[in-house]
């Protein structure tokens, strides 16, 4: 479910400096892993996450069970802490630590979502989709074009928005060919997830690693070739089975609204500001994002002011009115609140001492390479966000190579199943029953080959 919009994704997780380690988190771990109430905390978290995984069946927003679980878990922790003689201020420090992490995440995500919503309102993505539909490409050419675009758009936008954009093209041009739609949808899911793995802004997990200080901003680009391999290997296999005929072109023209391209430019400037604030001023990147959002606010004010003074004769729908606070209101609040629940629930289990236990059990016994590769496979079933959050909270002793490895595997592991990422879940909903779980599963072996090949390339290129 690599979420960023439903959840939108994009794109960003902020500031995770040694989250729940005994000395690095600003508070002492409680170490109450054998307390009966601590076992109850685990059961509550597992039950909540089962409900998250069944979101599509239960029609229950994913934020609801995890927020409730977080509240109950911390209430139980407070009871345990009282029995262990923990002072009120110590417990409060643990809660406020998690609040600080969530606040930085919240602001970062809110800015990214606002920019994407503004670009959607200015018809930037609709114009790109219309242009692709006019090109008159063959099914096989469209297979490669949509996959390649998904690979290069997702590092800046999120995998969900990218998949929906490419999925709309696939359904519009090739909706009558079930084989083409299935293969092209799978290709887009793999490409969107792979594209996000080599960019600090491409996936929430990459942002988690970057802002925890585990990998430098430009260090992530060492994953570019492994990510390419992850996309290309299954694409080459599946392309052989894509129909070669040429569908008729669709004549649809969509013009970007005034200021749409400038908004795209401002988004790029905002990303640069985030990096600059972190690298030059040693400030959290969300400060740069908020500064960039202020530029967007001023620009949308300018667009509204200009439309009111130069187009008085137009009706309201044609004036180009753009209220930035409406775009803020349309942010994916389910996702934002989902992260609140995840951070506090996982942070609570970390405070009890379970993350340290897992860290010593897996990283010490199996070794970081095996553990990180297995964690990527787990992310095909369990959302990669709590997986990565837990690993950063464990803060195992790993070098740059291993942090890049878990970044790669957690980012692309969700491609193995259609339900393993937000991109896959969304496309199943928009394909009108053509792209299905079983249809994706039939090609999981090819995706697994890409997964293994990308890990091998990472070891070959970056292992030294």
TrEMBL record:
Residue stretches spanning the membrane: 36-54, 66-82, 102-120, 132-153, 159-175, 180-198, 218-242, 254-277, 283-302, 335-353, 373-391, 403-423, 443-461
Membrane topology note: Multi-pass membrane protein
Localisation per UniProt entry: Membrane
Signal peptide: 1-22
Main location: membrane
Start and end residues of each Citrate transporter-like domain: 56-411
Protein keywords: Antiport, Ion transport, Membrane, Signal, Sodium, Sodium transport, Transmembrane, Transmembrane helix, Transport
Superkingdom, natural source: Bacteria
Pfam families: CitMHS
Keyword Transport: yes
Coiled coil feature spans: none
NCBIfam families membership: NhaD_1 (NF038006)
Family: Belongs to the NhaD Na(+)/H(+) (TC 2.A.62) antiporter family.
PANTHER family in UniProt: SODIUM/PROTON ANTIPORTER 1-RELATED, SODIUM_PROTON ANTIPORTER 1-RELATED
Record's protein name: Sodium:proton antiporter NhaD
Organism per entry: Kistimonas scapharcae
